[in-house]
Amino acid sequence: MRSLLKSPLLRQPRWWALTILGSCLGYAVVTLTPLPLGLALVVLAIWLFAAHRFHWGAPPHPHAPKHVWPWSLLPLALWWVYLYLANSFGKVDLGAIYFHLQAGITAHGGVSRISAAILFSLSAIISLVAYTWLVRHDHRWRLWERILVLFLLATNPLLFGITQRGAAIVTEDGEWLDRRYVEPALVDRPAELPNLLVLYLESTERTYSDEERFGDAYDDLEAIGEKGIVFDGVRQLDNTGWTMAGMIASQCGTPLMPAGLLHDRQFEPLEEVVPGLECMGDLLSKEGYNLTYMGGASKEFAGKGLFYRGHGFDTIYGREELVPRMENPDYLNSWGLYDDTLFNFALEEIRKLDAKGAPWGFFALTLTTHPPYGNPARSCQKRQGEFDGEDILYSVECSAWLTRVFLNRLESDGLLDNTLVVVASDHLTMKVSAWDKLIESPRDNTFILIGNGLAPARIQREASTLDLFPTILEGMGFTIDQHRAGLGVSLLSPLRTLVERNGQEEINRRLREEYALQERLWDGLEPQRRQNDESPPEQITETPADEVAGDDASGIP
Length: 557
Prior knowledge:
Blueprint: H1 2-5, H2 8-11, H3 13-32, H4 39-53, H5 73-89, H6 94-103, H7 111-137, H8 139-155, H9 157-165, H10 176-179, E1 186-188, E2 195-201, H11 211-214, H12 219-225, E3 228-235, H13 243-252, H14 280-286, E4 290-295, H15 304-310, E5 315-317, H16 319-322, H17 339-355, E6 360-365, H18 378-384, H19 392-412, E7 419-425, H20 435-438, E8 447-451, E9 457-464, H21 468-475, E10 479-480, E11 484-485, E12 488-489, H22 498-502, H23 504-513, H24 516-521
Parallel strand pairs: 2-6, 2-7, 3-9, 4-5, 4-6
Antiparallel strand pairs: 1-10, 3-8, 7-8, 11-12
Helix pairs in contact: 3-4, 3-7, 5-7, 7-8, 12-19, 17-19
């Protein structure tokens, strides 16, 4: 060991610096591509070979070292931010970052990500020190690194995304989505109003149903689907890929475009969430529904409590309200309640709602499959064996089984009579242990309707979570205007969805340029620039350029 420490290689700061930089480069390559982790060593080897071949850090004709600060330090630091986000979530969603900063993140449960953030920060600091040493001791790098600055800035997806957020300023048509928005309206009601049970299964996407890739992890949800309508092809649009955005997409029919510069108090927490929209809770509340939301995590995180309070819900339960009622308050994960505890409370609450006689709506959000590893309950470990702490498929199987058991308990107690049951993923999963297999093919969300006289079926449509809103309303027996609500189209109708008409990529492109829909979402929080107007301008529902011959009766392509 002593002789190893005396090795010239280890005593030379040049090779320490170059090895650190090569290791960071290798990690960046495998993080941003589908390449296996082991290839990071190949990248390191190539880097060190080039360093030896070109005498990096020890040029043949050296100049005196200069005490300079590289121009590239800030661009490199920004790349480390992006690497952390890519490592955490797979796909970096800037909309999610903006929204969470405004809506609140203090009650989050991502303890593992805090540890990762500390590790990434330390790695970034070490790499920046190594890079500074290289620039100071190799005059060639002092010349190249100014060009490197431009390259790092131009290729950073984080900065590219930020510039795209400003595209609405110069776009020719920032009202494309808003013209397609239909105000939700219940034209007719069923003779007997059904109850509504909505179960959002955290990140439990339908992609897991592929047995060749994921085995039997999804089998219990397949069994649930045999009793109702299973929808295939429910895609994820931009700004719908995190929990609050997924809930708003499926209950309000729009992507969650963060308030951004429309919010006139940028550094204060939001007081309302999408106040300009009429959502499912608003409609059902007017029909006399008693509405309850229950989730095991804090209702303060990401504005969940604000959203449900502002959109017709009577009762909102989060971690704060449920933990004091637990027999064992220590039986918690980093986010909150395990789902076996949550479902016990949900059963108790639904019994109370059913006893009141009025139609009820109960919305619940699970935690079992929350990335990156999941939070499987003890009852699952008794059934499935010990959890290794990383296998997300273990958690998917646990979530599916707990959901099936919960629905069976409700059914045996007669609590699903005259009830529409909705089982849906809130969004596609972020980066998990099965990530490489998940991204092998197009992915879709779980969406199942059960009960209320719906005959079992399987419907294949190119759709999005925006379409859940009108589909659920029609599944309950309501007649809605044009089979549409918000930007969604009922999948029980023959009308084509926004995705079928325009394609997912085109909608995402339009979303980056949209400003009118963003103003609609946050009407009331934006600067009061219109308050002197006598009346708001009439909404333009169509332009000649939008017309497509031979389209269906809605007239909107």
